[in-house]
From TrEMBL:
Signal peptide: none annotated. It comes from Planomicrobium okeanokoites. This is TRAP transporter small permease. PANTHER family: 2,3-DIKETO-L-GULONATE TRAP TRANSPORTER SMALL PERMEASE PROTEIN YIAM. It comes from the Bacteria. Residues 45-171 form the Tripartite ATP-independent periplasmic transporters DctQ component domain. Pfam families: DctQ. Belongs to the TRAP transporter small permease family. Keywords: Cell inner membrane, Cell membrane, Membrane, Transmembrane, Transmembrane helix, Transport. It is found in: Cell inner membrane. It is a multi-pass membrane protein. The chain crosses the membrane at residues 35-58, 70-86, 107-128, 148-167.
Length: 189
């Protein structure tokens, strides 16, 4: 760690609860995000390639060839949203933020992170209610014959992970002397 670490940052690092939560974040949640994204993209590519080859050469297309890739894209999108926040590569308009300096820049960044966190907490709530309504209605996919609730489940899970990553960034920015854009950046891990 750098010598410029403040007392609050040192207290953060020495707190056993924070250390456990950081370990869980790095070795369970981040691994889950990477697995879903890498396996999902690889499987999606293989399925779409296989279906195109089957259609072209065999004149055959499985019934599930439209639904499964679509459902996979939904999961990849919502988990990818969380991973983008982790990496600091989510869409943001920082034209004005880059022109500011010092405490004003830090306060605005903390405010933006707070709003994003609250927004994704609310989306998690809405997504959970929507998913439970779909499960309760027993809506099934046409060709795969699975509950659409499993597809909709990507919404609350992805929004919850995104909210968690925004909260983590918020805490890092509050305790750090600088503005931190991603969870792997200098400062508090």
């Amino acid at each position: 760690m750098e010598e410029s670490i403040s007392k609050s940052e040192k207290a953060y690092h020495s707190n056993p609860v924070i250390r456990i939560l950081s370990w869980i974040d790095r070795w369970i949640i981040e691994v889950f995000e990477k697995f879903i994204l890498s396996f999902g993209l690889l499987a999606l590519s293989a399925i779409v390639f296989g279906v195109v080859i089957a259609r072209y050469f065999l004149g055959f297309s499985p019934d599930w060839s439209d639904e499964l890739p679509r459902f996979m894209v939904v999961w990849i999108t919502f988990i990818g949203m969380s991973y983008c926040v982790r990496q600091g590569s989510h869409v943001k308009i920082d034209l004005f933020l880059n022109k500011m300096h010092g405490k004003v820049k830090k306060y605005i960044n903390v405010t933006i992170l707070s709003i994003c966190f609250l927004f994704f907490v609310y989306l998690t709530y809405l997504g959970y209610n929507l998913t439970m309504a779909v499960f309760a209605a027993n809506q099934m996919s046409v060709s795969l014959d699975i509950s659409l609730g499993y597809v909709y489940m990507a919404i609350p899970i992805g929004c919850f992970l995104t909210a968690k990553n925004f909260l983590h960034l918020l805490i890092k920015n509050i305790l750090s002397k600088e503005v931190i854009a991603d969870l792997s950046e200098r400062g508090i891990k």
